[in-house]
Amino acid sequence: MPGLFCVSLTHAKDDADRATVAFVVANAAVASDKETMVFLSTEGVRLAVKGYADDVHEEGFAPLRELMAGFVAAGGKVYVCSPCFKRRKLDEGALIDGATIVGGAKLVEFLGQGAPCVSY
């Protein structure tokens, strides 16, 4: 059943459990033929930097870097909050594959199409 699905993620290493579960759910959505986007904001934007998630591995789950790569490989989109990214002075040249820096309007547009959204 086609449709849209959004995962909003505000955590990274500050709560690796939430970050991991967010990508587990995102992978389930994209595997269910949903057009799926993960919106990274506040601390979550750090996950968009290459290498940042490489050492995150919560017990009982695949490593976060694998969950993220699998999500993108399956067609999922990773959108990164521009003001949050800039506030943290992160390097736009070091984005992970599949990540795009966007404004909040992109999230509003996606949700405005009727996409359900879960937040972590």
Judging from the principal axes of the Cα atoms, what is the shape? globular
The CATH superfamily label reads DsrEFH-like
What is the residue-mean pLDDT, rounded to a whole number? 97
- The oligomerization state is single chain
Q: State the total count of DSSP E strands.
A: 5
Number of domains: 1
Order of helix and strand elements from N to C terminus: EHEHEHEHE
Question: Which class in CATH terms?
Answer: Alpha Beta
Largest sheet: 5 strands, parallel
Distance between termini?
24 Å
Please compute the radius of gyration using only Cα atoms. 13 Å
Low-confidence stretches: none
Q: How do the strands line up in the largest sheet?
A: 4-3-2-1-5
- Please work out how many helical segments DSSP would assign: 4
What does this structure look like?
This protein is α/β, with parallel strands linked by helices and 120 residues long. The chain is 34% helix and 22% strand. The protein has helices at residues 16-31, 64-73, 82-87, 104-112; strands at residues 3-9, 34-40, 77-81, 99-102, 117-119. The longest helix is centred in the N-terminal third of the chain and has 16 residues, at 16-31.
Short overview:
This protein has one domain (3-119): Hypothetical Protein Ychn, Chain: A. The protein has four helices and five strands, in the order βαβαβαβαβ.
